Amino acid sequence: MIEGEMDVLIFNEGGALTEVIEMGGDVFNRKIYCRIPENLFHTIIIRSECAIFLEVTDGPFRKEETIVAPWAPQEGDTAGIIAFMETIKRLRA
Description:
Layout: E1 6-11, E2 17-23, E3 41-46, H1 78-92
Antiparallel strand pairs: 1-2, 1-3
């Protein structure tokens, strides 16, 4: 975490929220880094006006090898994505 605040949300295979990692550093009394084990579904929610973070993964990145959660909205499904994010925000409220 370089600047700002965000939450890293971890989900189980069925889509239930299992962990929230609050990121933001000393200014916010939050973590500045986390390690997400392989094969865990995750997303982020930005909590500040702006957030800058560095994500490091093994490469090279190949989109066709990305595993998308079966319960997640499909890419391009704007209404589904908005509804999904609203549900997540309510879980974190």
